[in-house]
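Note to self: keep these together.
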Amino acid sequence: MATLPADIALTPAAAARVAAIAARQGKPAILRLSVEGGGCSGFQYKFGLAEAPDADDTIASTGDVRLVVDGISLDLVRGASVDYVESLGGAAFRVTNPNAASGCGCGTSFAI
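Structure:
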């Protein structure tokens, strides 16, 4: 496991939301971000709670909350920031990815 905060970041707003969700579900406050093929732009972000980091994960911590990203996904999101935003359109985790050349309107898929 590597802890390289410059590789990926978790904002305080996202950390607070992860902590609330994890507490409600009785799970550790570990958010897993992965990238899968698909979506309207070629790649899509996938979020879920993890029980523990995997051996090849990169970990970013904000307070007691951890964001974990596998090695393959990290190559596509290196330098990104994960935030939690609430607006009239709804609430969601949002990835600001400097590697994305384009994205879709829903904000969950991107192209490189």
